[in-house]
Each structure stands twice: as C-alpha cells, then as structure tokens.
Amino acid sequence: MVGCETHFFFIEMEKSLEELIEEYFQNSEYSVIEFIQRGDGGTKVAEIFVDNEKGINIDELAKINRDLNDLVDTELIIKDLSKLVVSSPGAERPFRFFWQLKKHNGRTLELELNNGEKLEGKLLESDENDHVTIDIIKKEKNKKISAETRIINFSEIKESKVKLSFSK
User: Fold this and answer.
1) Ramachandran angles phi, psi of 166, nearest 5°
2) How many Å apart are CA 38 and CA 89, to the nearest integer?
3) Pairing between strand 81-87 and 44-51?
4) What is the rounded CA–CA span in Å between residue 7 and residue 5?
5) Strand-strand pairing, 131-140 and 118-126
6) Which phi and psi angles does 84 have, rounded to 5°?
7) Does 12 have pLDDT greater than 60?
C-alpha cells in the first residue's frame, strides 16, 4: 500500500504546483501557453511556457522564473522536483490563443482544422472577430502556388503553428 500512498503524494504535489502557477499568473499580463512536467523521482522537471500580447523579453522571463522558484521553495514541499524552467514558447509550439496569431501576420502557418483538414498558408490578417485570413498554398509540379484565400474562425482551428523554413 506504500506505493499507492507515494503515487497519491505525487498527484497531490503536481496539483499543488499547478495551482501555485495558476494563482501566480491569475492577475498578471502573462498567459501560460503550456505547462509540462516530465521525469520522475528526483529528476522531475517542470517547464512553463508563457507569453503575452506584446511579447515577452528575457528580463521578464528571468523575473518570473525567480518568482516562481521562490514560491515553490516557500509554499510547497517538493522533494522530487529538480528543476523549474520558465521560457517563452518557440515558433514550433502550437498557438493556444488567438492573440498569439496576431503577432505572426505575414508568416506561413501550418493549420489543422477540427474537421481534420490540413492546410498551409500565409497569414494575411487576423481581425477583432477571431477570424484569420489565410492565403492557402498548394503544391503543383513541385512548385508552391497560391490556391485560394480563406477566412477561418479561430474556433475551427484544432492546431496552428508557424511553419519553420530553413531555406537559403
């Protein structure tokens, strides 16, 4: 039965850490984009990806990181958490909020819609009604061409992220 008690403690610890993070960001200008916990035992790592509409700089990230680590040290007894890392979401992370898209007008996005359709296109506009205008790109004879322009409601998008390009 000791195993069950240990498992219960880890579940409770994780819930408390999540609650602490939620409380910290509740009245701030920052939003948690993603919260990941990985590892186990004494090697557990918590990663928190945060952003806001204006963008976030390294000094802001450092302050949030210090604040959260101080809170964890004073508010929680977590013996198995070896590291807590605060970072901004990289371009490879999917967008969780509509306002994140607004910062990427002009960039090429990969989209998956709720109906399973997958699209690639240049983000032309994001408006105040949570709509995005995408210039859809199709491949034809190994060339990318503009196929159509579509207006898509953000609620129809299952996942969207910047398409990374490493061309010369």
Assistant:
1) -115, 30
2) 17
3) parallel
4) 5
5) antiparallel
6) -125, 125
7) no
**What average pLDDT does the structure give for the chain?**
83
- Measured CA to CA in angstroms, residue 15 lies from 10, 44, 137 at distances of 9, 14, 43
Buried residues in 108-121 as b, exposed as e (16+ CB within 10 A): bbebeeeeeeebbb
Q: Are 112 and 157 in contact (CB under 8 A)?
A: yes
Q: How far is residue 107 from each of residues 13, 46, 59, 128, measured CA to CA in Å?
A: 40, 30, 26, 19
The reported pTM is 0.72
Residue with tokens 């910047």: 162
pLDDT digits (tens, 9 = 90+) for 32-89: 999 988 887 677 888 999 999 888 999 999 999 999 988 887 776 666 677 889 999 8
